[in-house]
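Trying the structure run again after the queue cleared.
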Amino acid sequence: MSNPILEYLDKAETIKEIAERNEIILNYQKYGILDRNNAIQKIKELRIKDPDVSTITFAKLAISNTPFEHTPNDQLVSELAMQRDILLAKLGNNKL
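Done. Tokens:
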């Protein structure tokens, strides 16, 4: 049986993750400002806790793997956008 409270909390957490990524992406697009440490932290955290993000990231890293210290800002923002899109798709498909 599913627990409606846990489902609600999972959806709320997903919405929060999407909003955090949107804020970082929009600040970069509008103002050229990127808190690299925050962006990297968000990327790493979601890679660890979300199996779908982890699987897709692993597939992409098999092609190209650049350490975060050498990753250009555009690439960090692209990964955040990818994570956001995965979360949006999961939210839309009611996988949570």
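Residues 4-92 form one domain. Worth checking whether this holds up in the mutant runs.
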